[in-house]
Design brief:
Length: 357
């Protein structure tokens, strides 16, 4: 199966299936002598871990990571780093009833047509369970970036409910189960999602990721633009259907003088009077905050009867049992952060190789 590796100089390959014995990744290209232990990775996995509230999947996975190679005495050696996460709460029997039926909105049909075989135990490689490996790799990427680069994500829309940006509070996003930066929106979001759960339905979400402290000059000007690589990275996350950078689609309705991000002299070099470009111009970082948003569709696996076909193309109905997120976008927040970290770490190493930054 091709397409399991991501990155150029900082590169990781994920492996494992949703209901197999374990998942993990091999991270390559990490410079030697970086401090790295499981304790540097675990907090980010804890942020993504299921079963932390009634609003996420009740699958009970501790997601404890083990470093099996690539470090010695708490430092990276320059060798590939193998990160191992055991699956301890598999329930493949929950999916036995759909072994020969395709779940609408899921990858069942396309995997079947491509490979002639599919792992129906929760979707196998197509499951959001795979994203734990990305979060582990992203934790390593953060070590490369160092403490001066800060990457934070928040849920800015849940279904039809959006935040009030005038109340944005990063600290509040750490204190509720939605990663919502608007503390006054949380109660309404909880009621909305409770209603959806009782109705056996689901909803989508929009996540915003902001990377601060990124130095100017990262990115390649033509085919490996920084914004292009970031958009691709976010589009590889399960259920993501759209990506915006900076003003995004709103830029289409602006006038030229409004979107231009005028410049003035600052104490530490030029400063921008606005950031509609989202911190990237010509595919290269400007030094301003990199701002991205991505849209996640509603969870496809729901317990409502839906029309579909089986592997012999008989028309049937399907109800998906098992433990699923009523909004998969909630746990996509740390995944989006991890993918942004991975792209930035890759481009930082590429810039060092090219220009000695």
């Amino acid at each position: 199966m091709a397409g399991n590796s991501f990155g150029t100089l900082f590169r990781f390959t994920t492996w494992g299936e949703s209901h197999g014995p374990a998942i993990g990744c091999v991270v390559d290209g990490v410079p030697p002598r970086l401090p790295l232990t499981e304790a540097d990775i675990q907090p980010w996995l804890d942020k993504r871990r299921p079963g932390q509230s009634r609003f996420t999947s009740q699958r009970r996975e501790p997601d404890l990571v083990k470093i099996l190679s690539g470090t010695f005495e708490g430092q990276t050696t320059g060798a590939p780093i193998l990160l191992f996460i055991e699956n301890s709460d598999q329930r493949p029997k929950d999916y036995s009833a759909i072994a020969d039926r395709f779940r609408p909105g899921h990858a069942d049909y396309t995997y079947w047509k491509k490979y002639g075989i599919r792992d129906w135990r929760g979707g196998g490689r197509a499951s959001a369970r795979e994203t734990a490996s990305r979060v582990a790799a992203g934790a390593v990427a953060r070590k490369i970036l160092g403490p001066s680069v800060r990457i934070r994500g928040a849920l800015v829309q849940l279904g039809t409910h959006t935040i009030d940006r005038s109340r944005w509070d990063w600290q509040a996003s750490l204190e509720n189960p939605f990663w919502c930066p608007d503390p006054e929106a949380v109660a309404a979001w909880a009621d909305y999602l409770d209603t959806l759960r009782k109705e056996g339905s689901s909803c989508g979400a929009v996540i915003e990721v902001v990377a601060s402290g990124v130095p100017a000059g990262l990115g390649e000007p033509v085919y490996d633009k920084l914004d292009g690589d970031l958009a691709r990275a976010l589009m590889t996350i399960n259920a993501v259907k759209a990506v915006e950078i900076g003003a995004g689609f709103a830029a289409a309705s602006m006038r030229g003088e409004e979107s231009a991000d005028e410049m003035r002299r600052g104490n530490a070099g030029p400063r921008f009077l606005s950031n509609h470009a989202g911190g990237i111009l010509g595919g290269i970082s400007t030094g301003e905050d990199i701002v991205l948003r991505f849209a996640v569709k509603p969870t496809s696996s729901i317990p409502r009867p839906l029309r579909t076909v089986d592997i012999e193309e008989n028309e049937v109905e399907i109800e998906t049992k098992g433990r699923h997120d009523p909004c998969v976008g909630i746990r996509a927040v740390p995944v989006g952060e991890a993918m942004v970290a991975s792209v930035l770490a890759d481009h930082l190493l590429r810039q060092r190789a090219l220009c000695g930054l």
